[in-house]
User: What shape does this take?
Amino acid sequence: MIVQTKYLSKEIKKSIAYVVSGNFLEYFDLMLMTHLAFVMTPYFMPKGHPFLEKVVTMFAFLSSFIIRPLAAIFWGKIGDSFGRVFVLSWTTMIMAVSCVFIVLIPPHDAWGIYSAYCFLFARILQGISSSGEGAAAEIFCTELVKPPTVYRVCVLLKLASNVAGLMALLLGMFCVNLMENGWKYCFYFGGTIAVCAMNFRRKLKETKEFLDAHITVQDNRLTEIKEHYLKRNFMCLVGLNIAAAAGFVFGYGFCTNLLKTIGLTSPQILFNNACVVVVEILVIALFGYLTYFLYPLKILKLRCVASFFIIPLGFLLLYFEKSHFTIFLAQLAILLPIQGLDPAVPIFIKGFHPKKRFTNYGLSWALSKSITYIVTGVFATFIETQFGMYGLLAFLLTASAVFLYSINHFVCEEKMRKIITETEFKIANKATHKKKENQHAKKIQSNIKTWIKE
Assistant: This one.
């Protein structure tokens, strides 16, 4: 099922359509709860204690990420053993169950603290689902299509997830304005489309690269060198994802709190975040288009270098004035440069062997996001209180530095093949040189024997 660079068969296009549409539906459900968490939390959580409400609200935002490393190990073992399609189908089913479950939970007034427990359990279910789904979709497409087309396909996945987030925001705005507890209708709709996504993905066939890795003999030289750079690439990928997660937390978590402090209502905050997502979609589409002219890693490096100028500019705007417009611009300044690894995702995936690819790629993604979401989410207020805006700026610039360092030290498959080629060339040169030395020695010996006879 792996194709040539430019042309995709009808079967491949159909498979991509199933994955992208399923990715859209999966992320629609995930982002519903993410963006509507601050609206839903009062329904399930205790009231009358401001500090406790703030902590519980933040935990509600982060709870789906706490379980991710364990879930990533679980899905990684399954994905590397039973295939990417198996994971795609089951993660979508779990997301559907969580959407239906959350609508059935009674309010805090009826169930007390048990209502909060059930709400957090639903968040954990979504965290388990998203830990496997995102990685499975990207790995499936990376193994299905060859470069450079695969770069655009993976960008299409990211666009689908962002469009899903936008649709979730718009639907949330509509339902919240419609009536009290109108968010429930969002989840009725979300559960329905999750079932549709599950049916789409059952039609997928496993990728040839995954099957070959378990059936046929692979390139032993490439396998060995991927094993050699496994730890290095894993840590680099963790560093890249940590920076991206930090941008997400500050862009949506910290800036959303700023919007609350200036008096914006819930529908206004949702509309603001929807505008941010629209800009993100346009920028990601631009990155995909640039792959026609530039190598994806170069695009990623340019994004990172730009962050050292753009992020301080966003904080400078907040320093002089905290208005709706300046906060919006600061969100874009934080999110756009280091948010995500597009369009270079397939390059990072290919840096791992197919038999261990899902485990390493998924775990690095989940581990880094869990660490970052928890640390930055819990201590963002503390950093701002102790060090002010300068502390937050220093944190994000440090994340950008980690991002740039990780890009430069990741060993991609192209570099590995180059190393193999250079090593073989050196060995061939040594063998040729040794052969010439042997021939020269034999010639000398022959000359000596001739001399002795004479």
